[in-house]
Amino acid sequence: MSNFFNTKIEFLKGVGPMRAELLQKELSIFTYGDLIQHYPFRYLDRTQFYKVSELDESMPYVQVRGRIRGKEVIGEGRKQRLAATLVDENGDQLELVWFKGVKWMEKTLKNHTDYIVFGKPTEFNGRFSMAHPELEELAEEKQTTSFLQPVYNTTEKLKAHRIDSKVIAKMMEHLLKVALPQVQESLSPELIDTYKLMDKRSAYANIHFPETVEKYNAAKFRLKFEELFYIQLRLFRQKVVRKADLKGQVFNQVPTLNEFYKNHMTFDLTGAQKRVVKEIYADLTAGKQMNRLLQGDVGSGKTIVAFITMLIAADNGAQSVLMAPTEILADQHYVGLKAFADRLGINLGKLTGSTKASERKVLHEQLRSGEMKMIVGTHALLEDVVQFQNLGLCIVDEQHRFGVEQRSKLWRKNPRIIPHVLVMTATPIPRTLAMTLYGDLDVSVIDELPAGRKEIVTVHRFDSHRLRVFQFVRDQIKLGRQVYIVYPLIEESEQMENYKDLMDGYESIKRAFPEYQVSMVHGKLKPQDKDYEMQRFVKKETQIMVATTVIEVGVNVPNASVMIIESAERFGLSQLHQLRGRVGRGAEQSYCILMTGYKLSKDSKTRLETMVRTNNGFEIADIDLKLRGPGDLMGTQQSGVLDLLIADLSKDAPILQEARAAAQRVLHQDPQLEKPENANIRRHIQSLSANTINWSRIS
Rg for the chain (alpha carbons), in Å? Predict the structure, then answer.
């Protein structure tokens, strides 16, 4: 798009330097391009008129047509108010009241004149009134072009400086007058024709000031489609470039893997695990760099797939790392894989923040010489001193917990040829989010639990059922099982005094179960103290583990079969699902009990009902996305990709599918976007600054 849209906002009529500074600080609006893409977040429907007899207090904002029959100023001083009577065509009366700007309103309001009034109806003693309604003389109605009135996001600071939604709408009117002639089409004629898209100029006009409901819907579809199309186009181009340019080591020898399968594996892989291993092996033998996302619910067996991949690397003379976000999770991976590595005579190391200096020295030397083929660790692996002879495979667990720069530091540990990359997550990612966040990765999904695993029984209980729940806990411990009790907070705070806190809970549990040993783990404990308490629980020295969400990832205690989550309404849906995944790891039936008070919001009820109804992580993730929106999920704010201006991944999956298919088709037919029919797309991409993450943006 032309340089016109890079014009500073202060040069727009009605803005000026002072307002421009506020718009920059409060809404990040710096240019004409930023303002035109500051879309309304809702609209007031001016298309429907009500008669006074049809009004109801539950209605939000309504329009009534009628004639002013009388007005008077009542009271004195600060208690002064203006009251006017509006009579509709049926002769029914609506009282209009103003408590502010009384003198100005009295002068402005014309008796015996027809008006449209717009406001919130309230009822008192069988009569309806409206306080501070918006007014429009009926004669003026025909001149208005937009029946849906835009409402723009603003802030308290802007309102204090008299920049409310109406003022922003006025700025937008001034902008559109000068900007619409400058708008250039950014999609190809073929796409516009295929998807019956409104042209861009009309889309901007009708997203801000819709002429009709139909035109508003067409404008919204057009702008959402374009935004998602450019995100997908960028991801596909990255993928094409990577596959064309980035060479990968070829791993086609598998002697140790065959020995592992035949002599050391004590269980069968599920069908899903076998499928994923085949997909990974195809990548490793293709001569291109693997860049694959492995999704699998808690307990689905991702770790063994990771180990098989590491074995393939070792069979071909390459080293591999498995990086986890916490020491607890790194320890769990290490303990789980060490038994297999020892049987196969493979040197497997562990490097975390608490690894002693003397041990580090040995590890560093063995990695540099190539003697150590596999290492498991945390961020400590990223330190410059950690060097490899030939790093061929990087596996990152719960990868959204690491920043982009951290991950790329790991990739750069092999200066000769970029390592293969496998990123794993137990956080089920909704399909729409995966396509947008990880569209440049190949995706594998383990959607099947290992044989013999029983589905976790989940129930919701109120605080009044606590004695019954405690009796159930005793019954389970008598059967030899162990129990988690999770709290949302460490200490009570004034704002959250209704919620159970850990310290209070710990004392209560010790009083309720004097015959049993209780461990306590939370994020403020020193790593060694946390580890000590965890180990006591693992060794069955304690029967009950009282904890905060630090146990969400990385605790594998097959004997723990009961998970009680206190104040469960305080947790997000994905977090509840992750916590539930801490039980159900053995052959015994496991249970998750969600404890709450009786006062629950609508969203809380939805979360709890979902947990009770299903164990399917992907279904849970979809509902979570609808409830929370994409920004909160998985720390995606860091990605930049989800800086969406108008599309909403929780609602726009069908548009995303269409935009994705369109982007794929365009690049398949014209990888370099050189054909004349793609000139608009090429020009739009070139007009964006090189470091802009979201290609759909103008500025």
Answer: 31
Pairwise CA distance, residues 522 & 417, whole Å? 42
Report DSSP state, residue 489.
B
The pLDDT value recorded for residue 280 is 94
pLDDT tens-digit map of 502-515: 788 888 899 989 99
Q: Give the pairing of strands 42-45 and 148-151.
A: antiparallel
- Check residue 279 and give its pLDDT: 94
Q: Are 570 and 499 in contact (CB under 8 A)?
A: yes
Q: Which of these, 682, 671, 662, lies nearest to 191 by C-alpha position?
A: 662
Q: What is the Cβ-side half-sphere exposure of residue 107, based on CA atoms within 13 angstroms? A: 3
Residue 633 CB-density burial (10 A; 0-12 exposed, 13-18 middle, 19+ buried): buried
* pLDDT, position 639: 40
Distance, in Å, from the CA atom of 444 to the CA atom of 129, rounded to the nearest integer, reads: 60
Q: Where are the alpha helices (DSSP H) in 246-270?
A: 255-259
| Model confidence pLDDT, tens digit, residues 628-665 | 655 444 443 334 445 678 887 767 878 888 998 999 89
Residues of the chain short of pLDDT 70, as ranges, are 1-2, 46-47, 139-147, 242-245, 399-407, 428, 430-440, 489-500, 551-555, 628-643, 650, 688-699
Cβ atoms of 82 and 71 closer than 8 Å? yes
| Three-class SS of 497-545 | CCCCEHHHHHHHHHHHCCCCCEEEECCCCCHHHHHHHHHHHHCCCCCEE
- Tell me how far the alpha carbon of residue 89 is from its chain's centroid: 51
Residue 147 has what pLDDT? 66
Residue 579 identity (one-letter amino acid) = L
- What is the torsion angle, in degrees rounded to the nearest 10, for the CA atoms of residue 595, residue 598, residue 604 and residue 606? 100
Q: What is the C-alpha to C-alpha distance for residues 377 and 367, in angstroms, rounded to an integer?
A: 13
Q: For residue 133, give both structure tokens.
A: 């309604």
> Are the C-beta atoms of residues 321 and 449 closer than 8 Å to each other?
no
The vertex-390 CA angle with 387 and 395, nearest 5°, equals 80
The confidence score (pLDDT) of residue 490 equals 55
**Angle CA 125–130–133, to nearest 5:** 175
C-alpha to C-alpha distance for 52 and 93, rounded to whole angstroms: 7
User: Distance between CA 173 and CA 149 in Å, rounded?
Assistant: 12
- Rounded-to-integer distance, Cα 198 and Cα 221, Å: 8
The angle that helices 302-315 and 327-343 make with each other, rounded to 10 degrees, is 50
- Exposed/middle/buried for 498, CB within 10 Å: 0-12, 13-18, 19+? exposed
Question: Is 561 exposed, middle or buried, given 0-12, 13-18 or 19+ CB atoms closer than 10 A?
Answer: buried
End-to-end CA distance of the chain: 9
CB 227 within 8 A of CB 200: no
pTM over 0.70, yes/no: no
Residue 222, pLDDT score: 96
Alpha-carbon dihedral sign for residues 600, 604, 605, 611: negative
Residues 411/357, Cβ–Cβ less than 8 Å: no
Give the whole-angstrom CA distance, residue 362 versus residue 368: 10
Q: Dig out the tokens for 462 from the structure.
A: 């109120």
